[in-house]
Fold these 2 entries.
Entry 1:
Amino acid sequence: MELYQLTACEAGRALQKKEASAAELVAASLDRMALVESTINGFISLREERELFREAEKIQKLLDNGRQLSPLAGIPMALKDNLCTRDLPTTCGSKMLADYRPPYDAHVVDLLKGAHAIMIGKSNMDEFAMGSSTENSYFKPTLNPWDIERVPGGSSGGSAALVAAGEVFFAIGSDTGGSVRQPASLCGVVGLKPTYGLVSRYGLIAFASSLDQVGPLTRDVRDCAAVLDVIAGCDPRDSTSADRQKEHYSSYLGKEVKGFRVAFPSEQLGLGIEQYYKEVFLEGVGKLGRLGVEVEEISMPVYNYALPAYYIICPAEASSNLARYDGVQYGFRSGGEQDLLELYFKNRTEAFGPEVKRRIMLGTYALSAGYYDAYYLQASRVRTAVKQQLERIFEKYDFVVTPTSPTSAFKLGEKVDDPLTMYLNDIFTTLANLAGVPAISIPCGLANGLPVGLQLIGRHFDEGRMFQLCCALEEELGMKGVRPDIRTALEREDA
Amino acid sequence: MAAEFETVIGLEVHLELQTKSKIFCACPNRFGEAPNSNVCPVCLGLPGSLPVLNGKVIELSLRAALALNCEVPPYSKFDRKNYFYPDLPKAYQISQYDFPLARNGHLDLYSESRLIRRVQIERLHIEEDAGKLLHGEDGAASLVDYNRSGVPLVEIVTAPDLRSPEEARLFLELLRRTLLYTGVSDCKMEEGSLRCDANISLRPGGEKALGSKVELKNMNSFRSVQKGLEYEAIRQKSVLRESGSISSETRRYDESRGITLEMRGKEEEHDYRYFPEPDLPPLIIEGSRLKEIGESLPELPTERGLRLAREYEIPPSQAEVITASRGLADFYEEAVGHFNRPRLVANWLTSDVQSLVKEWDKEDPMPFTAFRLAELLRLVEDGAISTRMAKEVLKESFDGGESPGEIVRRKGLAQLSDEKELASIAEKVLQEHQGAAKDFLSGNKKSLSFLVGQVMKHTGGKANPQMVSKLLQERLKKT
Ligand SMILES: [Zn+2]
């Protein structure tokens, strides 16, 4: 096995045991990148190699001096390009911010730096995190390492593809309606949307503030817990950050899961899900039973309302969050305007892509006088109902299990012109954002050679037990270490 | 008979709170510094930044709310008010919409201890200020200074309870006084820490329904609030008399020309698309906190004025002057505590002391204390110095910081009140001016002042004039 194929925790152990050096890990990442990045297109910007090796050397010295560092120390990783970094531009995948360099680091960046993780670069994403395929990036589409004719999902598609392709050991994404879990599912990696308030949003460029949450994309459940151990915690700079005792998530791994109760809203599988895909998922659900977990089918009518409510609240907040991009202080400036109104029109018309414009218009409409009650207010009520129904379910069950996404990776250009079909990608994922609860996607199996993701939704702040169950299930599913064969994909391209 | 038209006015007042830092970040809340020197990612609205509410803002807002007799519900929240303008870096202002911090308050306007108007306070809410747009002289460029962006404000909205432009000004002055007492703001209209917009409409006398209102902006002093409203009332009256109708619009007062001009019509009104601010949790106000803040409030100017007039038997108008500032009122009561002649103290305070205070424009605390005023007045009462001398001593004590007693001693100002010595001088003066003495005895009372003046001259002005007059008369009667 080559270095780049290790999980982050395995790589970390190799460092501790002096089986590998931090510089070798960086080199492994860079070599892998040299081989596949021109195909995958997972990065928007990269740090200089010299700088990376200098950082690796520093960390190596600390390790050699016997310093106890975090399990992520010396591990190459990528950050979604909507997390503010001083060292690299932060573009949000948009022409609007193509040259924007924030004067400060996001809270998670502070924490990852503190843990001595090595940030290789910033990963590609749908513009302002709006999309499910990373095709909405201003810069370029990212390709799926399992099949380079297909999308990696989105909006954290760059992060998911980089982890799957072996270019980095883990990545950080953000999830507003499924933007970590859906690409994790399509790329065959683990992706977590933590409980709202568990990870600080300070320095995460806002899309829909009441739904956004930063989360890890990793090669296995253990890595996911290890990353959450670093990035979770109260931050006084984020007023929605939860003020609670820090947990040690990794300590839940390997514990007995017998007796856990899981609800399965089976009637939701009727919703346009491909048969072969459904079978792989159902097999995964069946394996829960083998672990001694009680799985019960339930009815969850609220699922039918979650998506429409999400597509009101999310654009409404986005329309307000994105109003600041006017080119006055920073960002794209068209020039040549005659007056203030023209300045706004030109800058915003020329620098935003069609999906961003679509959501700004939807959201502006939903908040307008005369429509507010029918749209935003009504959607807020649905949101409350979603929370309540979920709470009732969690009185009886520990988790809800669903597929992460209705399909495996689809082809580039297949859905990009059909926003409604594209929005259906979020059908299983938005619920957790509306309710603020944690949800994770783990690889469940392959259907026609493409990964299928299984989602578990849990109670508020129940990430620990979620990892506990996922870790056991991961063993049972046997997907650990199953990696895409990009070489084959490349050869196919050559042929 | 009812008047032809009744003027109906309501005010919207914005107040900058006196906090050390801004409302959602740690930048200093200071006026008059170099442009864009007090800014950070939060108040610049940079991508990824988030607001964190300054606790002091809540405390000061609650003080203001309680001083205005408002109800403070246990739950309130923040909302976003969305609009585009270059001085608003996030393109939304964090404000409060449907659940303001406080509502249903009132403030009573008195004149001469008589209630003339109870003005309802409809709501009081918290919001952030915007930056400031500076237009280049050539008109080619505009610059933005974000120092003011994120300065904490409260907005106070009154019901349309005011009935004349003068009343509006008086109310605004009372509001200012009341808020100054609570220490929530320095309330300087010239510096913009207190800003006032007004809604004004006219209706036929006796009519209950309100007429269409005009929102009047850009009044930058108490005087211009009254002047602007006066102009607008006359303008509306003439439109209505010519059977025209008033269109609901926003007008601005042009101070230099003394007129109001149309700013924007109703159809140009913004749709602010308010919605709950997702970055801030709701504001929960505990009853115990309200109680604590209520108890820490000082006696407010209206109540205090009424009490001073009653308790010290001074004229209500004088009590109003004394309670114009909390410092002056405290000064008064302390001085009376040291020297129990409330009316005398009030007279001195509202004339001589006050004019000195007004001239005092230094940053240092005033060197003249209530104790010193009491000391000065006691010197007068004991006959040690004359009233005229006392005024000089007052000025000197005020300027130099020396106590009145010290000044009198150092300058040998003490009055000559030794009866024997004065008597011999009086005797001498009568000898020198026998003509004047004779005039007095034949009924010319003016000659007495002349004779007193002569004694004063002999003593270099130090003689106690009452005593001199008494001695002269005694002697004249004997002859
Ligand atoms: Zn600031």
Entry 2:
Amino acid sequence: MNFEYSDEQALLSDAVTRFVSDRYGLAGVRSAAETKDGVTAANWQGMADMGLLGMPFPEQAGGFGGGPVETQIVMEAFGRGHVLDPWVGGVLLPGALLSALDPARLTELVPDVATGDLVLALAHEEDGARYVTAQVVTNARRCGNGWRLSGRKVNVLAGAAANRLFVTARTAGAEADEDGISVFEVPVDAPGLSRTAYRQYDGQTVAALTLDDVSLPDGALVGDEGEAFSALELALDTATAAICAEAVGATETMLHATVDYLKTRQQFGGPLSRFQVLQHRCAEMYVAVEQARSMALYAAVSLGLEDRDERRRAISAAKVQCAESARFAGQNAVQMHGGIGVTDELLVGHLFRRTTMIERQFGDAGHHLARLDRLGGLDNQMGE
Amino acid sequence: MELSFSPDELAFRAEVRAFIRDNLPEDIRAFAHRSGYYKADQVRRWQKILDSRGWAAGHWPVEFGGPGWTAVQRYIFNEELLRAPAPEPLSFNINMVGPVIYTFGTEEQKSRFLPKIRSLDWWFCQGFSEPGAGSDLAALKTSAVTDGDSYVINGQKIWTSTAQHADWMFALVRTDPKAPKKQMGISFLLIDMNTPGIDVRPIVTIDGEHHTNEVFFDNVRVPAENLIGEENKGWDYAKFLLGSERTGIARVGLSKGRMDRALELARVAPVYGGARLIEDPGFRQRALKLQVELKALEISALRIIDRQRRNPSDKPDAASSILKLRGAETQQASAELLADAAGPSAAPFFDFREMFSDNEVPQGVARADGAMRVHFAARPATIYGGASEVQKNIIAKAILGFKDKP
Ligand SMILES: Cc1cc2nc3c(=O)[nH]c(=O)nc-3n(C[C@H](O)[C@H](O)[C@H](O)COP(=O)(O)OP(=O)(O)OC[C@H]3O[C@@H](n4cnc5c(N)ncnc54)[C@H](O)[C@@H]3O)c2cc1C
């Protein structure tokens, strides 16, 4: 048992924390609002310079060999400063998918991803699919020496900025079958592909894609035909662990902001901080942050597990805790700020929108409780 | 003991329902279904329709244009509007400033203001809160100094909702800064929003909308005839205003309407294994618990109405804090259920200020633009109108007899 960061990890944590506090917070919200595609060029370049864009990739592929704990360090810092640039969507998530499906293809891409020249995106979610990972209606059929794809994808993270798209499509099976899902590399200028960029409530820019009989060469297929589901699930679990860490950082900032605010806000002839009911509420927030931190760590170290079910249980358990902590801490931070907490004026309001989205992103607490239940609960204690 | 509505009350409910069905303009219905709220012109149009039916001011005395309803009829009427959903008559006008004017105003003020307040020809906003005076409202500083036959106003209000649409503001201002208690130097003034020196600046809230504002006063001259009641008695009128017609504040119908919409979405939302969200045991339990809570709240509201009917009193009933507290919480819980049912379909930010937004995402089966907006817009419900913590203080002190200092 050892919870300590290595020297390198401690350095990474310091460096990312500094980077985030120099560039993000309310200033980051404003610069993100000015971008069309959701990537602030200067900050993305800053991430490249620090090695963050190549961080999660193996060294032999040209990356920096960071693992889940490094990701956890980065995401916690990103959460603290409300980083909207799509590191999860543009680097981590598609990277995790390719590394499971087609490592050779990943090796080709990593150098350009690491410099920031290439932004990747995974287009998977479909309209109305909710959190059902296997719900893929977009279809791909063989056509001569290649493929033809038709369908619609929504809420594609980094989808507006991406210059390399990886799209899931059904090559066999029925609507929600786990078998028969394949991944295709789709050039952004492919005839028949259209992209609409839009913002989500948390300020992130995402895209909807329409594929209207898009023609692709044989080599567009990534990995084995119809076999993408388990890689997809692993990639989504990786991203889930990452946003659990982001929730820790975001709730931590909200906690500190609330404590500071209560000490300065004067009502009824003194600071609000003198009311014990508010002190206790902050104490509960602190507990929520720490419980989330524990489970975010649990998620990170569980990503490497050989046993797929063990990994899935751990990720779902972590998401349940982090969603609940994000909900409690976020809602109470806003409540204790009073009116100013529901505005754009303070970072708290922006962070609250983000934590509210984190609660639901990649499956809400209800979805993950149900998955944990199907897998027999932690340690299969409730199983057969 | 009879907990259900009488045949007459049921007949009244049917009449209200039919009226809404036949008279609510289609664009208002469609916009509300999609967004969960209304635009200013929709509120104006609908209130005119209600007013021409004599229904705009449910609890006003008949002589000022009220319909002469019982408290239960008023309750039914509001609940039907909320659940439809259709806009409620503007609360600032009907529940707040109107009753203050017909109770404390002069005959001239009554005949000048009440008809236009009822018909919403004049839209009022509420200028109470200030940067330094939130929960501690009596700390307000905006000053009104007598100069000839006017007051000259200087200072700042904040959180003034709908000030951007308003023709008038009813405001609390400080007329006697030297009064021995801070509650004693406050007056209640009506201020024409077109008066020179008033500057309205928008505040954007977390739902991405512009509902509320800061309002700055720079030597704004207000005729002395716009004072309501006596100078330095404004705090009493404000307490009267905040205490009047509290039985509707639980807004049970609003929460029921949100639940209706959440269940509508849950019937189509897929979950693992080919089932729908409506079949998910966890989701069902949450919805059922909320139903129970809302039923309890509804009966509590009717019990308080009944008690007030039997023992009429000018003083607000401290038990109505139950309605504000749980009412706000159930509004939030139903909004959260709605956001959860919508799931990722509610993620795109939709700018409802325009019916056809720049940010419009072509979406199909599970169109749920308004769900996340409703969830965010519900958060301040436990902050405004007396924060939940303040409601609990009222219950602790006024009902349970706890004292600040033992
Ligand atoms: C969307 C919105 C619309 C509004 N519209 C209007 C309007 O039209 N006109 C108007 O005049 N005002 C309006 N308000 C203002 C509203 O009434 C105030 O926000 C409210 O009174 C709280 O004041 P505050 O925001 O300054 O919070 P504060 O008084 O600073 O309180 C902050 C938090 O501290 C806690 N707290 C406060 N007092 C106590 C206590 N005694 N014990 C324990 N905890 C406590 C509560 O959690 C509270 O939320 C609006 C507010 C909002 C958010």
